[in-house]
Specification:
11 helices; 5-stranded mixed beta sheet; alpha/beta; 283 residues
Length: 283
């Protein structure tokens, strides 16, 4: 058995991986795939790829592109989620902020520098015409610490996946002030350059398994109830999320990565555009 380490956020997007692992689909091909949840998100996973603490990661497209631009020897294996990520914009339910305009020049809680919550704060601010030079951040590492930071007034707002944070809105911990979808497909499967170069055939097998599972995922009987129970969601919220979410079995296109890089360049979050081929593993 070939041991392969993979990381991802503990969210509903990644259930196909858990099903494939539990049903022995990778083991049948001689692959011992070991999954680790990373609640800190994309910034932490980028660091893990760079430090070779993991072989694979399900990671936000924009965060990985930015990290590669800074010298991370990571590469995109394939697009994983073809639909945008819906970032909810949250404030403390008992706090003073009632409208998005109230958040201008305030402090955004982020999981980590270079994380999706960090980069999307720039995207959101740019869409509203705010002065990007005046953005302020407090690193909180994860959702639990974000709750503490907002309720104690250490930060003013926190952007995180809409449906993951919906229970906190429903329970009166957070107030939602709106959503900001990513302007591109949200998740990719990433690997290290070294792992890709040494394990091309292995990656082909992994893709064959996960692409089969994601292509059939929505057709699984009562998958909405399974997701709702496993991730503590209301059934109607999961059903809405399933309608919005599209898994991919294809490579991310040059057009998508050009769009990501154009936005990151505009926001001065990367210094130069990288060639399409330099972002991908060889196929």
């Amino acid at each position: 058995m070939k041991k392969v380490k993979i990381v991802g956020v503990p969210e509903h997007f990644n259930l196909p991986w858990h099903l494939a692992i539990s049903e022995g689909a990778f083991a049948e091909r001689g692959i011992a795939l070991e999954w680790t949840d990373i609640p800190e998100g994309t910034g932490k996973m980028c660091q893990m790829l760079q430090d070779k603490e993991t072989d694979l990661a399900i990671i936000l497209t924009e965060g990985l592109v930015k990290s590669i631009s800074q010298g991370n020897p990571a590469r995109i294996v394939q697009e994983y989620i073809a639909s945008p990520l819906l970032w909810g914009i949250h404030v403390a339910a008992k706090g003073p902020h009632q409208h998005l305009a109230d958040l201008e020049n305030s402090v955004a809680a982020i999981s980590r520098l270079g994380s999706g919550s960090h980069l999307m704060a720039y995207v959101h601010a740019q869409q509203l015409g705010w002065d990007l030079e005046r953005l302020q951040f407090k690193v909180v590492h994860n959702l639990e610490s974000a709750v503490e930071a907002l309720t104690q007034g250490q930060a003013d707002y926190f952007m995180w996946e809409h449906f993951t944070t919906k229970p906190l809105v429903d329970s009166g911990v957070f107030r939602s002030l709106g959503d900001c979808p990513t302007p591109w497909p949200c998740f990719v499967l990433a690997t290290t350059e070294a792992f890709s170069n040494e394990n091309h055939g292995l990656l082909v097998h992994i893709l064959e398994v996960i692409n089969l599972y994601t292509s059939e995922f929505k057709a699984i009987p009562s998958i909405d109830r399974t997701l709702a129970n496993r991730y503590g969601q209301q059934l109607e919220d999961i059903q809405e999320w399933l309608e919005l979410t599209r898994w991919s079995q294809s490579q991310v296109t040059a057009k998508v990565l050009d769009n990501v890089q154009d936005k990151l360049l505009l926001l001065k979050l990367i210094k130069k555009r990288m060639p399409y081929e330099s972002l991908l593993t060889r196929r």
